[in-house]
Design a protein that fits this description.
- The protein has about 200 residues and is of the alpha+beta class.
- The chain has two domains: about 140 residues, no CATH class; about 35 residues, no CATH class.
- Helix content is about 50%, strand content about 15%.
- The longest helix has 17 residues.
- The mean pLDDT is about 85.
């Protein structure tokens, strides 16, 4: 294949995927980037920019490990690999690096998404796969319906408290105790339109 012209040879979605791999390298996040984390990175990005990334967003379906896109694997990563721009989902080639930098400079829409992409990589990098699945399943429960790990996706860094607001509103001024999935407890009281939350201390 001759020299690649990103405007002719790459779709906008492929530019975004290439940019993601470029930023993973640029931010030195390669060692912390699993395939699951990369998939969820692109998934969350597509939810942040549903119009610009409709071509990716619409391809995600509930799967064994949360949202999965065959398009991302085949038309995204596979195509970029065939073109010699990447080695895999976290390794960019010298030519890919050159084209990624070029497209960010020339494409205003990509430049806008690139800022969010960097922030997402920095946010997700320290988290393990379970943490990320936990976040995804809580934000988008419809993508957990075919999950093989839904009940095992327990976060080491996050916890969930289930609060029945209807029950609280029926019992004004009364202290109600709730418990998280990690066993921690809180005291809640709703009085004069104010919701008061305190740690439970034995």
């Amino acid at each position: 294949m001759g020299k690649i012209d990103p405007e002719k040879d790459l779709t906008f979605e492929q530019k975004v995927i290439l940019d993601a791999i470029y930023r993973i390298n640029d931010l030195k996040a390669k060692n912390k980037m699993s395939k699951i984390k990369f998939e969820k990175l692109i998934f969350l990005l597509s939810k942040m920019y549903p119009s610009e990334l409709e071509g990716i967003s619409d391809t995600f379906e509930p799967y064994a490990m949360g949202p999965y896109s065959e398009f991302l694997d085949d038309d995204g990563l596979g195509r970029l690999q065939d073109m010699g721009l990447i080695k895999d989902y976290k390794e960019i080639t010298p030519e890919g690096l050159e084209i990624a930098k070029q497209t960010i400079q020339q494409d205003e829409n990509l430049k806008k998404i690139d800022k969010s992409l960097k922030e997402l990589i920095e946010t997700l990098s320290p988290l393990n796969d379970n943490d990320i699945l936990y976040i995804i399943y809580n934000l988008y429960p419809e993508y957990a319906e075919r999950s093989q790990v839904r009940n095992m996706a327990r976060s080491e860094n996050f916890e969930t408290y289930e609060v029945d607001l209807n029950e609280i509103s029926k019992r004004p001024s009364e202290v109600i105790e709730i418990k998280s999935d990690k066993g921690n407890r809180l005291k809640i009281k709703f009085e004069n339109g104010v919701l008061e939350i305190n740690e439970k201390v034995d």
